[in-house]
């Protein structure tokens, strides 16, 4: 068992058993900086041992969390069974994925993509009238898979794409009026798509 301590201008590790002497780094160094120094030292040791002479200073390019979760939503949308527009949704709370969902036919019902026909194909999006649609929306499927207590204060990431003549086009996903009401009741605080934060117009739901 080791503890972080500050002693005589040093920051280092000391064994609670007292068997190890104090070792540390120069004053005004944080623990994170000390760990980073150790990582660099280990890397240099590996270079000497194995002969690797690649760059040490190039940092890995990591996507932002919003981009990361939108990427998951994009992957989810590939499971969509809709011929008109594929949607994928990820619900996140406290930096943890709570649920995912894509738009598709109810369980046990033949999928539109298998039938090869969509009765709404030439109709406008997000009208709120889906009496002739056989699919459950991505937002609805995601919320059905989560408990409300886990969704309260969370963020919904939405991704959508159209495919026309084999060409895939990203579109800014927005909830229909029915899904918007459900999102509000679920307690989800923020909606995010490829353009950024989506604001729900309460006058239209």
Q: Which structural class do the helices and strands define? A: alpha+beta
What is the number of beta strands?
9
Q: What do the pLDDT scores average to?
A: 81
Give the end-to-end Cα distance, rounded to a whole number of Å.
58 Å
Radius of gyration: 26 Å
Proportion of β residues?
Answer: 25-35%
- The string of secondary-structure elements, in order, is EEEHHEEHHHEEHEE
Seen as an oligomer or otherwise, the chain set is single chain
Helix content: 25-40%
Segments where pLDDT lies below 50 for 5+ residues? 1-27
Outline the structure in words.
This protein has 6 helices and 9 strands; from the N terminus they run βββααββαααββαββ. It has 205 residues and is of the alpha+beta class. The strands form 2 sheets. Strands 4, 5, 6, 7, 8 and 9 form a 6-stranded mixed β-sheet that branches. A 3-stranded antiparallel β-sheet has the order 1-2-3, with no helix packed on it. A hairpin with a 2-residue loop joins strand 6 (155-164) and strand 7. The relative contact order is 0.12.
Provide key terms for this protein.
disordered N terminus, alpha+beta, 6 helices
Q: Would you spell out the secondary-structure blueprint of this structure?
A:
Elements: E1 2-7, E2 10-15, E3 23-25, H1 31-50, H2 65-77, E4 86-93, E5 96-102, H3 112-115, H4 138-144, H5 148-151, E6 155-164, E7 167-171, H6 177-186, E8 190-193, E9 196-198
